[in-house]
Structures are given as structure tokens and as C-alpha cells.
Amino acid sequence: MTATSIRSICCIGAGYVGGPTMAVIADRCPDVQVTVVDINQARIDAWNDEDLSRLPVYEPGLDAVVGRARGRNLHFSTAVEEAIAAADMVFISVNTPTKTKGLGAGQASDLRWVEACARTVARAAKGHTIVVEKSTLPVRTAEAVKAILSAASTEGGERSFSVLSNPEFLAEGTAIPDLESPDRVLIGGEHPEAIDALAQVYGQWVPQERILRTNLWSSELSKLTANAFLAQRISSINSIAALCEATGADVREVGRAIGTDSRIGPKFLNAGPGFGGSCFQKDILNLVYLCRHFGLPEVADYWESVVNLNTWQQHRIARIVVQKLFGTVTGKRLAILGFAFKADTNDTREAPAIRIARDLLEEGAQLAIHDPKVEPEQIERDLNLPASEAPDAEAGPTRAALSGEGTWWSSAEVADAVAGADAVLILTEWKHYRQLNWDQLAPLMRKPAWVFDARAVVDPAAVAASGLKLWRVGDGDA
Ligand code: NAD
Ligand code: UGA
Predict the structure, then answer these.
(1) Residue 282: what are its φ and ψ, rounded to 5°?
(2) Does ligand 2 lie within 6 Å of residue 433's CB atom?
């Protein structure tokens, strides 16, 4: 087959990666029919919702891209096998979470969904099909995918397969610009014609010099390595933030001082409540598992420490809140601003807010949680605790509060969350939180009242002028 023959793409998995990635491919390649399939009917229905504000993934700019391509050459469907049969290229973009039980539990990736996809492709594909691993996978997964597919290949060549690895590097919140103008596109494979075919799809909008070609294993491992390096920078700066707090240095000044060294660079040096998101922890733990499997325990320990420091940072922040509030938060009302793992997304997977909120609930706190994009039902699932009725801020602690039971409720407005609170915790860097009017909020709070700014987004002078006490991550003067 020639590289130009890709006319029909199927993507299995309509999640945070499959949806936006395919929307951009369809937008940029109007001659290619792109069908995104999923077993989750509700998700597919949401992708097909006429109201573009109700797409299942919130990403700035995604609605416009979907609006241009949907119905033209972008389709969302649950007819998985039908779409595979019609496609000459199938992307596998399903979830690969950490295993929760069995061999490698807590570290290895659970590949059951990827294997299920490979088997479905093996069953349904027609003609020659290029199968592209888009999910993040342990190095050498392509071996298993190839074995399943080759068992379904026919001698006469009516059914044959090529496997490529094409990991995705988009970050949530900036998915559309990341996809439209990627630093690089990585394609790993064994068959040059298959690599060329995928390179041609991307070549519709990505300059050729940004399309990197490697062998399958380098491609798979590069994805895990990229995430490990990024997460390592965050743990590094968070470790220095704690030292700054102890010594009077300011982590932002240190970050600026080291970031201007062109060898270090300025990005990913923001101290905060630790990294969240569905991938950093999962991918590092997967790397750790692989290193142990291949007899490299020192390498495994090295990378595991990046995750351990991240967990420590989240518990540390909860501990600081308790300590500053006279050693107890039992029955105290605290406002949590931001539940998403970062700004500009509705995703809460591994959000630092989850661990911090759980620690505070364990201490018996009353949490008023505000987030502009996260649904209360999601918070309920993440905390594994049903929401309570919002108590009357004027009425003092409820009976449940005084009994030491931690409770939470969702506040639609920042002012409602803050009313009657002893402290405000900023856990996501939503733009809105940078512009809060502390002169208006401070009088609503019970004094002495604190602002714990884990994202360093507030103006310290404005908080101080309103009479509130301020703790900022990595600020030795706080
Ligand atoms: P997700 O959970 O949002 O979406 C996965 C989708 O796959 C779900 O809707 C699920 O129903 C569907 N699915 C699972 N098995 C299926 C099957 N057999 N047939 C049809 N549909 C099936 O996951 P995601 O965040 O899009 O991540 C997908 C992969 O991409 C993961 O490997 C992840 O590590 C990687 N990744 C994620 C990001 C990110 O920002 N979220 C970035 C880069 C890479
Ligand atoms: C990350 C990577 O950046 C993507 O390249 C990768 O494709 C993706 O993981 C993945 O494989 O899933 P994402 O998790 O969406 O993307 O978001 P990031 O911007 O990397 O942020 C991750 C976490 O680190 C967030 O909680 C963020 O607040 C935190 N962070 C980031 C910091 O605490 N400080 C920083 O300086 C940067």
C-alpha cells in the first residue's frame, strides 16, 4: 500500500486523548474519514450532543474543532467492529491504568483493554490494516499486539497488519494547541511504508522535521521517559520549595535563577501541591515495575522516589493547614478552591485536591469545595463520600461537625465557599482565583483567618492588606 492511501481512520477510545486527537486529524485532513468508537454509550452520546458545550471532555478550542469536522468527516459511534472493518488505519487509544490486583498490582499497567482492542481488530479488520498504539504502554507491548494480530492474518494476504507506536504528548488544558502545533510527533515501527502512511497524515499540518521515526521499543519507552522526566522536575522543585520555606528563600526566585540557565530551561519549575493527572504517577510506576522486572532495582528506586516525594508533598500541605489552625481543624469550615488536577480541565484523576481533602476530612474538617468545571458528582466519587447539605455559615458548627465527622459540600460561588471559613486553600491555578477580591472575601471569614496558596497565584500584598494571614508554597517569608 502506498503512503497516500489512508482514507479511513478508526480510533478505539473516545476519551481525553482519542476525542481531541481525532478531532484535530479530521479537521486537518478533510479527505480522511475519521470514526471514533467507544463501548461507553453515554460518552459517545455526549460527543454527538448538538450543544458543543456538553462534550464529555472540556478543552479550550475543542468545541470549535469538533463543530467544524463533526458530521463531515468526523463521526462518533459505538459500532466498533463496523468502523474497524471500514478503516485502513486503527488507533488504539484506550485507558491503561495501574493494575489494582494480581501480578504487578499497584505498579504495572493494566493492559486488558488494549488486549481486548487487539482481539477486536483481529476479528473485524479487512484487507491491510495499520494498527497504531496511541495509548501509553510499557515497552515491548507491541510484541503482544503483533502476536494477536498475526494469529489473525491470512496466508493469501486478504488480512494483514502493521503495528506502529505513536504515543501522544498532549497535555490537558492545552490539548488543541499541543495537537495543532506539536513539538514533535513520534512514530515507531518496523515497516517503512506504514510509518510513511502515518507520517503523511500528520504531514498535512506538522512540518516533516518534527516527525521523528524510531524503532517500536524506543517509541514506547520514550513516552514513559518523557513523563518521568517532567514529573521528576516537579518533585525536584517541590523538594526545594520545602527547603525554601525552612530557610527564608523563595522558590519562585530560585526557579527563575536556575531556569535562566539555558541547559535547565524555565518550564515545569512551578512548585505546587504535587503533580496530578491520569498519567505521571501511573507511567512512573510502570517504569519502576519494568526496571525491577529487568533486574534494575537501583533504577527502580530512583524513579519511585519521584512519586514518593509527590505523595509526601500532598500530605505535607494538609499537615501545614492543620498546624497553622492551632493544631485542629475538627468542625472547622475550610474553603477549597479548585478540585481539577490543573487549570482548564474538568479532569480530577489523581488531583492533589483529592489527597489533601481526604486528609482534612480525616481530621474532621467541613469542606466547602468550589471548582468552575468539576461536577459535584465527580467530587463525590473521588472522595468516596456523599455530599452534605451546605450548613448555614452564620449558624456555627453543626452537630455532625462537633462530633468530629468530616463533611463536604459543593459551592457554586467562591463567596459562598468562603463564608464562615477559617481558611481558604487554593489547590488549582484557575485564572479566576488570581483575580479574587480579598477585600470583599476577608470580611466573610471567621478570624483569625488564613489563605493557603498551594499554587502561588494570589497577590500577597492584597491578601495581607485585607487582614488575612497567608501561607504560600515555597515562600520562606510566609
Ligand atoms: P480515557 O479513560 O479518557 O478514555 C479511554 C476510553 O477508552 C474510555 O472512554 C473507554 O470506554 C474506552 N475503551 C476502553 N476499552 C475499550 C474497548 N475495548 N473498546 C472501545 N472502547 C474502549 O483515557 P485517556 O485519558 O484518553 O487515555 C488513553 C491513553 O492515552 C492512556 O494510555 C493514557 O496513558 C494515554 N495518554 C493520556 C493523556 C491525557 O492527557 N489524558 C495524554 C497522553 C497519553
Ligand atoms: C502530562 C504531560 O505534560 C503530557 O506531555 C503527557 O502527554 C500527559 O501528561 C500524559 O501522558 O497524560 P498533563 O498531565 O495533562 O500532561 O498535564 P501537565 O501540564 O503535565 O501537568 C501535570 C501535573 O503537574 C498537574 O497537576 C500540574 O499542576 C503539575 N505541574 C505542572 C506542577 O505542579 N508544576 C509545573 O511546573 C508543571
Answers:
(1) -60, -45
(2) no
| pTM of the predicted model over 0.90 | yes
Atom of ligand 2 nearest to the CA of 341: 26
- Beta carbons of 321 and 425 less than 8 angstroms apart: yes
d(CA 160, CA 154): 7
Q: Which one of 95, 115, 275 would you pick to mutate in the ligand 1 pocket, going by the greatest count of ligand atoms within 8 A of its CB?
A: 95
Residue nearest to atom 34 of ligand 2 (CA): 270
Does the C-beta of 172 come closer than 6 Å to ligand 2? yes
Q: How far apart are CA 82 and CA 124, in angstroms?
A: 7
Q: Do the strands 366-370 and 211-214 form a parallel or antiparallel pair, or are they unpaired?
A: unpaired
- The Cα–Cα gap between 474 and 234 comes to 13
Tell me the average confidence (pLDDT) per consecutive run of 10 residues in the chain, 478 residues long.
75 97 98 98 98 94 98 98 98 96 94 96 96 94 94 82 97 96 98 97 98 97 98 98 97 98 98 97 96 97 98 98 98 97 94 98 98 97 96 74 89 97 98 97 97 97 98 89
Pick the ligand that lies closest to the CA of residue 310.
2
Cβ(164) – ligand 2 distance below 6 Å: no
CA–CA dist 43, 271 (Å, integer): 34
117 among known catalytic residues: no
**Ligand 1, pocket residues at CB < 6 Å:** 12-18, 37-40, 43, 80, 93-96, 113, 116-117, 135-136, 168, 170, 172, 278-279
Ligand nearest to the CA of 56: 1
* Per-residue pLDDT at 391: 87
Angle at CA of residue 125, ends 76 and 97, nearest 5°: 60
Question: Which grid coordinates are listed for 210?
Answer: 518534527
| SS3 letters across 152-200 | CCCCCCCEEEEEEECCCCCCCCCHHHHHHCCCCEEEEECCHHHHHHHHH
Instruction: Output the pLDDT for position 1.
Output: 42
Distance between Cα 277 and ligand 2 center (Å): 7
Strands (E), 53-178: 74-77, 89-92, 127-133, 159-165
